[in-house]
From TrEMBL:
Residues 3-421 form the Regulatory protein YycH domain. InterPro entries: YycH, YycH/YycI_2. This is Regulatory protein YycH domain-containing protein.
Length: 430
């Protein structure tokens, strides 16, 4: 009996030793992540949902020309903006003819002809524009980027006119076939009746004749952790090294990639200089790659718009602008500022591959927000302010926007006028 017990105990000891050896060899801390390949990388701790590129492509404003020198503006997510844009998305534009911008008297068209002007800011590649509009471009037009579309009527002409403006500035494309009637355009223009009238200054920007209403909001905020960012950006987050810079920034690196975190600005900068080039690169392909990268490395913590695809000497910069607002007041851009970088996502790509990725670590809880309606200045008061500003550098754009302000554990979005000057600088009023 004793011998049998000893045999069982010995067998258990041997089995336990084998199990322990297995864990010592294969389950030491870090060995799991060390053997993971990039294909087995699991995305965790998302900052927000994924997004389709189509939902990031829309005009930053819609200018309604009503004739007789009268104008009004619609902004994203406002009632008539949504209605008009959804209708235009289903209409076809074909047979594009290339013309010089000097062939048209834009001041006369702006003043006398009822029409709709869609502004796309820094521009959008035609191949992306096709994702939200029914276009049939030739090879020449397909290679352009468009910063404005102007659809209008001409007196005693039964045909609707549609002009697409190239970002190059000297060329426009006129659609010979437009799936819109004169009555369609007039109906869209009539939506602007009885709304706030705007006065244009040299056709560069528009000033409301009276005050406009926006929503001021305050909501709880927090900050995504460094651990979340590491798990989103590194294939093996456990292998990163920590470096503290003299300026207080924190750097995490796996010897190939680096994540720099500025705790004061709540801002992260990710760099992957060793990323393998994907090959052929165009502004449209790079924009699509940038959207995919954000989808896979954090997601979208709010509403964004593709703001720019700027080509540099060796790289292309793709920027996404965050918007805030709701029906019926509209949505407006959130301005990043030196004191608080928030509201933008910036990426750089080299030959179609993302090499850097910058964004804020702040998140907000819109479900617990408190709101109140406030007014921005208009009329003579605003015109006088802009005239004074224009003496130093001419004003090129005026739009409502939000300035983010940290208030303890909350974030405030304060409505302002964003003024863009001809030298590229930006300032705020109100």
């Amino acid at each position: 009996m004793k011998e049998r017990v000893k045999s069982w105990m010995l067998a258990l000891l041997v089995l336990g030793s084998l199990v322990e050896s297995y864990y010592l060899i294969y389950r030491l801390p870090g060995t799991d992540s060390a053997v993971l390949s990039e294909n087995l990388y699991v995305k965790t701790d998302n900052m927000g949902p994924e997004e389709k590129v189509e939902n990031l492509l829309y005009p930053d404003k819609m200018i309604i020309h009503m004739g007789d020198g009268k104008h009004t503006l619609f902004y994203p997510n406002s009632t008539f903006y949504n209605l008009i844009l959804n209708r235009l998305k289903g209409r076809g534009f074909e047979s594009f003819q290339r013309r010089s911008v000097q062939d048209f008297n834009w001041n006369q068209i702006r003043k006398e002809n009822p029409g709709i002007e869609l502004s796309f800011g820094a521009g959008i590649p035609v191949t992306l524009l096709q994702r939200i509009m029914q276009l049939s471009p030739d090879s020449l037009f397909a290679g352009e980027s468009i910063d404005k579309i102007w659809i209008y009527n001409i007196k005693n002409d039964s045909k609707a006119h549609a002009i697409f403006f190239s970002t190059r500035g000297d060329i426009v494309y006129e659609a010979a076939k437009v799936d819109l009637t004169v009555q369609d355009i007039q109906q869209h223009v009539d939506f602007g009746k009885n709304l706030i009238s705007y006065t244009t200054v040299n056709g560069d920007y528009y000033v409301p004749d009276s005050k406009i209403s926006l929503v001021e909001v305050e909501m709880p905020s927090g900050m995504y952790t460094i651990e979340q960012m590491q798990s989103n950006l590194f294939f093996d987050a456990g292998s990163t090294r920590y470096i503290r810079e003299k300026n207080g920034s924190e750097i995490y690196t796996d010897s190939k990639r680096s994540l720099q975190v500025d705790q004061e600005q709540n801002w992260m900068s990710y760099s992957d200089p060793a990323a393998l080039p994907a090959g052929e690169s165009t502004s449209a392909k790079d924009a699509l790659e940038a959207v995919d990268f954000v989808n896979q490395h954090g997601g979208w913590n709010g509403t964004y718009r593709l703001a720019a695809t700027e080509e540099g000497r060796l790289e292309r910069k793709v920027s996404f602008q965050q918007y805030y607002g709701s029906y019926p007041y509209g949505s407006y851009p959130i301005m990043s500022k030196p004191q608080l970088q928030y509201g933008v996502i910036n990426l750089e790509l080299q030959q179609g591959t993302v090499s850097s990725y910058d964004r804020s670590l702040i998140y907000i809880d819109e479900n617990k927000s408190t709101k109140k309606v406030v007014e921005l200045s208009g009329g003579e008061e605003l015109l006088n302010q802009l005239t004074q500003i224009g003496k130093a550098s001419s004003v090129k754009d005026l739009t409502p926007a939000y300035v983010p302000v940290e208030k303890g554990e909350k974030l405030q979005l304060l409505p302002v006028w964003r003024v863009t000057l001809s030298d590229g600088s930006v300032l705020t009023l109100n």
